[in-house]
Predict the structure.
Amino acid sequence: MWIYPEKYGVIVIGGGHAGCEAAYVSAKKGVRTLLLTMNLDTIAKLSCNPSIGGTAKGHIVREIDAMGGIMGKIADQTSIHYRMLNASKGPAVQAPRAQVDRIAYQFEMKKTLEGIPNLEIKQGTVENILFENNSITGVTTLEGVTYEAESYVVASGTFLNGQIFIGHISFSGGRSGDKPSVGLSESLKKLGLKLGKLKTGTPPRIHKRSIDFSKVEIQPSDENVRFSFDEVKPLLSQTNCFITYTTEQTKEIIQKNLQKSALYSGKITGLGPRYCPSLEDKVVRFSHRDRHQVFLEPEGQNTSEYYLSGMSSSMSFDVQLEFIRSIKGLENAEIMRPAYAIEYDYALSGQIYSSLQTKLIDNLFLAGQINGTTGYEEAAGQGLIAGINAANKALKKEMLYLSRASSYLGVMIDDLISKDLLEPYRMFTSRAEHRLILRQDNALLRLFTYAYKEGLISEERYKEIQSQKELIEKEKQRLETTYKSLLGKKSSLSQILCHKEFDYQKLLQEYPLDVVDHGKEINNQIQIEINYAGYISRQEKEIAKFEYLDKINIPKNFTYDKIIGLRNEAKEKLKKFLPENLSVASRLAGISPADISILMIMLKKNGA
Ligand SMILES: Cc1cc2nc3c(=O)[nH]c(=O)nc-3n(C[C@H](O)[C@H](O)[C@H](O)COP(=O)(O)OP(=O)(O)OC[C@H]3O[C@@H](n4cnc5c(N)ncnc54)[C@H](O)[C@@H]3O)c2cc1C
């Protein structure tokens, strides 16, 4: 096998959403990086719906952007329809979502990555992983080349042993139109990684000319929604999406054809996402419902394909055509691509640290769908962290750790390292216990110091954000002093706001918040911080209570078996997950506060 003459700092395997983000940040940190992917024409391909963001996912994209990542910028450049979801609800759950032009998104991502110094992109399918003494020494490709690096990120998505299902038809594939990754899956097993099976599905795409637009509702694009905190010039004009509904007839067609579903005929064994069910799942599980919503979303500006959001299915093609034609406005639908389900291998939980480094192999990091998640944003978020840490490994620097209190990124990774996954993991706002603090609007203020420390934003940008932060604090202080003088004795803003005699609206009229106008973004921050000061301060106190557990590290070779008083069930769980600190240990299912107290005593005895 020919060995490529140059050695890299980091090799990223897979040019999906995790891989692009990992390669981008690794190169941005000054590390020579190689992005190795099966097909250069499918870099950043949106395998399912051509949309980025949404509830909690939009928060992740904003955090990626705040950390100096790329997803939000490409989404803004190629958006064709924006929504601010939950706009009428509180700031914690508001989230941006964009319909993007599928092909433009891919091409813009590829073009951007091609222009990044230190980053090389090569087409190649990794078939084998070479390793020695707990360390990977190189990867070999189907094309007959061995590439070597200091550290490696595997971001192979739904491709590991991928098997596609359309009714009774089944064939191997990484996603529709792509080959599966078989050698890599076997190679990961040889390294000692334990793999399981999950599944997901995608809806059909139909031709625009076959939609009766007079029968469907229009959903126009929202104004002033963006992902990136930087000024990004949109490249495309905005367009409409549409909404329609299934009918009683749709339900009947599905019920009488359930045996033609790969899912219900027992052909698929892997578990799928409960919250993103197939249409047949919805009909069976919510049989009392008369109808289900269907979003008609254009796939781009240079295509007539429409994505039918909410209609994912593993039914045979003939049944798909029948049930789609039973939907209002789709009576003459012309299917261009059928819906399908896919089953694939993923790495079982308990095998990675919060840095996304594997516990087994020192210079191997995993990111994206391979860790059991689903979704482009979840994948990109992990890619960002794995890319930063693989680069840090190559540079012999400390790993980056983001706590649950810092970000949705921290929440997601903490969940991945401390929970058994029973289905593909998707982010929700309900997963974040401190969600009033982890808002999409303040992602930059929460994360810019990490981004700066990791060399992902410039000093100039750092100072600019720092001064914005100071301005907000100063303005909060000014308002506090003003209000305090009005109410007398109360000492903090949260106490003032919680005071029973306090009439906030009246006070606002007398002392309007915009007395000093700092611009829309900053005024908005001040307004939210003040409106929710009581709740925010309560969440801050809770965070402080747990923060000290984060700092009590558990050594990698810690022996749980010898600890007297620790229950056997707790020992088994701790040995399986090998938590890196007491905070992670405290969140493992089945670990009690008493177990944590015993552990704390033992760790303190050992000098922790
Ligand atoms: C049918 C289907 C339905 C889906 N439905 C949903 C949904 O409803 N909701 C949702 O949020 N998400 C859905 N997804 C998931 C979404 O596509 C993924 O979560 C996301 O793309 C994962 O990103 P990733 O970077 O981990 O992997 P991917 O985007 O899958 O990218 C993997 C990359 O790795 C490359 N690769 C694989 N093996 C090798 C190898 N051996 N050598 C070199 N390169 C390799 C591939 O070519 C590809 O570029 C669906 C995916 C599919 C396929």
Remarks:
- The first strand starts at residue 2 and ends at 3.
- The mean pLDDT is 91.
- The two ends are 47 Å apart (CA to CA).
- Residues 13-19, 36-39, 42, 47-48, 125-126, 155-159, 174-175, 181, 184, 200-202, 276, 342, 368-369, 374-376, 379 surround flavin-adenine dinucleotide (CB under 6 Å).
